[in-house]
Amino acid sequence: MVFEIYEKGQSWGHVGRSDEISITKTSISFGTDSLSQFGEEEFVEVYLDRKNNKVGFKSTTDNVTGFRIGKKVNKTGRRVSTGKFIKLLPQGKFKMRVEDGFVVIDVPEIVDDTKTVKL
Questions:
Q1: Could you tell me which of 14, 21, 53 has the C-alpha nearest to residue 37?
Q2: Would the CA dihedral through 108, 56, 96, 93 be positive or negative?
Q3: What Cα–Cα distance (Å) separates residue 87 from each residue in 23, 26, 82, 84?
Q4: How many CA atoms lie less than 13 Å away from 117 in the CB half-sphere?
Q5: CB atoms within 10 A of CB 46
Q6: Beta strand 67-74 pairing with 43-49
Q7: 45, 58 in Cβ contact below 8 A?
Q8: What is each CA distance from 72 to 14, 48, 61, 78, 99, in whole angstroms?
Q9: How distant, in Å, are the alpha carbons of 5, 44, 46, 68, 101 from that of 81?
Q10: Residues linked to residue 23 through DSSP beta bridges, in sequence order
Q11: In this predicted model, what pLDDT tens digit does every residue of 58-109 receive, in sequence order?
Q12: Distance CA 37, CA 68 (A)
């Protein structure tokens, strides 16, 4: 038997811990640890590393390449609406870390039909 704990009072759209990033079918919610890395910028860029199944986030002032960071969802985070792009990522809650100036999460897979620009 394999048990999974049910997180009381938490919905998939909200982060429960400050070091979490939550991905739902419509948005990405950031905990306070990742928001502190973004500073006061209004937008966040999303970077994909398909080889290592990582998603990176970096704040920006560019509204062309960045997604607008929404107002506070609750006391612990803020949300970004991403449109159809979000379907390329698995849903769930992921522990974040800072790596080379990016807020990074590891995901099980990234759908491979995304249009991206290699850096």
A1: 21
A2: negative
A3: 10, 8, 9, 6
A4: 4
A5: 19
A6: antiparallel
A7: yes
A8: 11, 25, 19, 5, 25
A9: 27, 11, 12, 8, 22
A10: 28, 92
A11: 999 998 888 888 876 556 677 787 777 788 889 889 999 999 999 999 999 8
A12: 16
* Block residue for tokens 């080379």: 100
Place of tokens 């990016």: 102
Is residue 37 exposed (0-12), middle (13-18) or buried (19+ Cβ within 10 Å)?
Answer: middle
Q: Under DSSP, is residue 47 helix (H, G, I), strand (E, B) or coil?
A: strand
Q: Is the pTM of this model over 0.85?
A: no
Q: Which residue has the tokens 């099980």?
A: 108
Burial of 115 (0-12, 13-18, 19+ CB in 10 A): exposed
Q: Per the structure block, which two tokens stand in for 115? A: 């249009």
